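Service request form, structural biology core

Requester: graduate student, group of Dr. S.
Request type: structure prediction, single chain
Budget code: on file
Notes: please return the result as structure tokens.

Sequence provided:
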Amino acid sequence: MKGITFAIAFVLTVCFVIGGVALYPNILGPAAASNNEFVFGFFLGPFSVLLFFAWIGEKIILKIRERKK
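Core staff response, request fulfilled:
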């Protein structure tokens, strides 16, 4: 896995978590402030999914580039 794939998944997940807390401050704000395990789970789940799809996408792009050469 390329470092850029990991970085993009990380940045998208951070945006997702911050956006979720900003959009639903009454629900996620108090939970994020008082329960660190909730925030970790809220971050780890989407990060794992995004990283998986980014990895698959990277493999597809590399195979397409390989065929063109």
